[in-house]
Amino acid sequence: MINIKFPFALTLSVCYAIPGRVVSVEGKTVVVDYFGETRKAHAVDCPVRPGEYIYAQGGIIVGQISEAEALPILAAWKERFFELKKVDAELSSASTEARGALGAAIKKAMAGEALSREDMLAVLSTRNPAQLETLYFAANRLRKERLGNACCVHGILEFSNHCRNDCHYCGIRCGNRTLKRYRMDAEEIFEAVGHAADKLGFKAIVLQSGEDSFYKDEMLAAIVKKLHERFGILITLSIGERSRECYRRLYKAGAYGALLRFETTNEALYSRLRPGKKLADRLELIKWLKRMGFVLATGFLIGLPGQTAEDTANDILLTKSLGPDMHSFGPFIPHPITPLASAAKPAQEDVLKAIALSRLADPQAKILVTTALETFGPGARAAGLLAGANSLMINTTPPKYRRLYDLYPGKAGTDEPLEDAVRKAVELLRSLGRAPADLGV
């Protein structure tokens, strides 16, 4: 891979957001300029005027920066930004010609036409290595043409591994009596987010937990409000099925993002794997979160026992129809203390095909490389990005808790210092020609 050398101090200080200059404001919609390219962002509670400089994440303005502070950052980034574009263009310039049904699906996607279910099944049935390589090249090129080389980087803080649910695929299910449980208090959460935001430059943090009723609505709202007012970051909630009133309260406190996956469109499979839960209830909450105005991330699991290619095609189609701001899906990894302990793990190519097909089906999507993909080995994250993805997460959970958030075995980076994880992620992105920043929508 081509590599561009960056001073590490510069990379850390500005690696997750590049300042943009406000070009125009119409109501809450703001047009922002980045080196001659314009993007749109939403000013929820951060009023701005033309000529001012801002940071945006997930299409939300999360903070302002003075011109005196912004200009040196932009000067340092400008040359590198276009160098990265050249690397990205080179890596996405391979031929996308393919024959048969796969070739027809690729041509339709490149022409901006919607894929049929038959097109999607043809892609999912592809096993030939050369054809798969062509598929990944096509998805990567489509990503570059539609969205450029920006790559969102989110931190994720796993603040509690208590969960009231007994999902058959999850290691922190309430039925796992062997797991040492933990809860971070408000001060620990504030300290961890502060380290990620102030010391390492994160502008977006996901607060994730099991469905833990210990954290009452008012407690979560107080935590979110303090984080929002102090750090100027996009706060995303991944806390499961809470009440609408809870989510309203948290949005008002400053959490503008929500991550809630539906796991599978197969109702029978959903009911079997999530005892006592209904897919319809989950989907209604996801749709409501979108209507409420949350920056929405949603998606599914790949390779669940009993899942078919038709299910996966339906999963991708449903994800697109929900209109999320980010697609989030990853492989099912069997956990030894679950009813699915003996189930098989999906092949890496099945995950990459789902990423690539999601890109062909929804060219404008932001597609996340989940941390679960990294269980396939050190090259899996790069493979996901080269198959059409353009977002990733870094675990910012304190080391003493990280191993205890035991969703699945083989979790990558469990014992790795956060600074090393940041360094590796940024080095990976620059080797692929990606700018580690969210430039809005």
Outline:
This protein is of the alpha/beta class and 441 residues long.
Features:
single chain, 441 residues, alpha/beta, SH3 type barrels, TIM Barrel, 3 domains, eight-stranded parallel sheet, five-stranded antiparallel sheet, 15 helices, 15 strands, 41% helix, 16% strand, globular, disordered N terminus
List the helices and strands and how they pair.
Blueprint: H1 8-13, E1 20-26, E2 29-34, E3 37-42, E4 53-57, E5 60-65, H2 67-91, H3 100-110, H4 117-124, H5 129-147, E6 152-160, H6 186-199, E7 204-209, H7 217-231, E8 234-238, H8 244-253, E9 257-259, H9 267-273, H10 279-292, E10 295-298, E11 301-302, H11 309-321, E12 326-327, E13 330-331, H12 348-361, E14 368-369, H13 380-385, E15 391-395, H14 399-402, H15 418-431
Parallel strand pairs: 6-7, 6-15, 7-8, 8-9, 9-10, 10-12, 11-13, 14-15
Antiparallel strand pairs: 1-2, 1-4, 2-3, 4-5
Helix pairs in contact: 3-4, 3-5, 4-11, 5-12, 6-7, 7-8, 11-12
